[in-house]
Amino acid sequence: MSPIRIGIIGCGFAGCMHGIAYQPHIDSGDVELVAACDIDEECAAKMAKEYNMGAHCANWQDLITNKNVDAVSIALPHYLHAQVAIAAAKAGKHVLCEKPMATTLEDCDKMINAAKDSKVKLMIAETYRFMPTMVKIKEIIDSGKIGEVFFARGSECLNEVPNICDAGSWHCTPDKAGGGAWFDAGVHICSAFRYTLGDVDSVRAGLLEHIALKEKEDDNAIVLLKFKKGAVGEAFLSETIGSPPFIRFEFYGTEGTILMDTDWDEPIKFFSSKGENPSEEWEKPVVEHLPMPQFYALSFREEVKEFVESIRENREPKYRGEEGKAAVEMALMGVLSSKLGRAVDIKDLYSSAARKLGIK
Ligand SMILES: NC(=O)c1ccc[n+]([C@@H]2O[C@H](COP(=O)([O-])OP(=O)(O)OC[C@H]3O[C@@H](n4cnc5c(N)ncnc54)[C@H](O)[C@@H]3O)[C@@H](O)[C@H]2O)c1
Q1: Domain range for residue 84?
Q2: What is the pLDDT of residues 118-129, one digit of tens each?
Q3: SS3 state at 106
Q4: Predicted TM-score (pTM) of this structure
Q5: Contact 109, 326 (CB under 8 A)
Q6: How many angstroms separate the alpha carbon of residue 9 from the centre of ligand 1?
Q7: Lowest CB count within 10 Å: 52, 61, 232, 242, which one?
Q8: For residue 36, what is the domain's CATH number?
Q9: Do 158 and 282 sit in the same domain of this protein?
C-alpha cells in the first residue's frame, strides 16, 4: 500500500505536535507529509522544510484542493474547524480535526454528514481519550475490580494566563474559541468521563469564574455531571494556577478506588476490595508515562496512530465525529447550566431557551 499523503493545516502548537506524532509512520513508510498550511506562511514554510514536504501555503483552500493530499490534520482555532473539515471531506480527504470538534452542535452535524456523504474518515483529535493512563483506567473499571463507579473527579490545572490575556490571541476570544476555558479544555474531561463512565444525564455548572479574563470568558470552572449509569463526576478546570501544571483523576467505586496523577512517577494506583483476592496495598499498574508537559506527546502519538491505522485498515476510527459531538454537547450543557443557574439535560440543550442564549 502506498503511503497516506497528509497535509497539516495550522502549524502552531498542536500542528507541530501532529507533525512529531506522524514521524514514526513516516519512518515506517505508512505516511508522507506532503503539505503544510498556515495563514502565517513563514510558519507553514518552516514546517514544510522540517518534514521535507513538497508544498506549503497560507490559504487552506489551496491545501484541500491539492490532488497530492489524501488526508488532513486540522489544528486551527476552533471557529475554523467546521468550515475547513467540511470542505476537506467534500474534497475527498480523510479528516483528523482537533478538539473541540466545532463551536456549535449544528456544525458538528454538518461535519459528520459531510464525511459520511464523501465516505471519508472523520476523527476528532481528543488527546484524553488516547492517554495511555486513561486507557488503563478504563481497562480497570471495565474489569469490575473497583465495582460500580459512583463518584469521579477530573482536574486539569494549568497556567495559561500569558496566552489567554494576549489581546492578539484567539484563545478565550469567544467568537474564535467558541467559549472560555471550560469549552476549550472542559471537552477533554468530558471525553475522558464519557469514555470511562458512559453517557451523561445532566450537567450543573457550579462555577465558571473569571480570574484573569475578567468580564470576558470563564478561565476556571467547576462542573458536576450526572451519568446515566448513576455516577456523579466533578470536572475541575483552572487556567490560572500559581504552581506547575498537573492533570489528576479519581474514580471511586463500590469495591475500590483508582487515583491518577501526572506528578507521580507511577501515575496510576488502584485499590480493589473485591472478591477472594482483594488488594493488600495500592496496586500500581505498569503504564507508559512522561511528566508534564511531555505527557501530552504520548496522547498525540496515540491519536495520530489511531487515525493512520483507521485509514490503512479502512475502518471507523475509535473517536469519530459522533464522540467529538457528544463531548461538545456535554461542554455546552455546562455553559447552558451556568447561564440558567440550574442543572440541564440534553432536552434543555436542544430547546428554544438554549437557542435564545446562542447555543445551537
Ligand atoms: N489536545 C491538546 O492537548 C491540545 C493542545 C493545544 C491545542 N489543541 C487544539 O489544537 C487547535 C489549535 O490550537 P493551538 O494551541 O495549536 O493554536 P495555535 O494558535 O498555536 O495554532 C493555530 C495556528 O493556526 C493558524 N491559523 C489561524 N487562522 C488560520 C487560517 N485562516 N488559515 C490557516 N492557518 C490559520 C495560526 O497562524 C496558528 O499558527 C485547537 O483546536 C486547540 O484546542 C489541543
Answers
A1: 4-120
A2: 999 999 999 999
A3: helix
A4: 0.97
A5: no
A6: 9
A7: 242
A8: 3.40.50.720
A9: yes
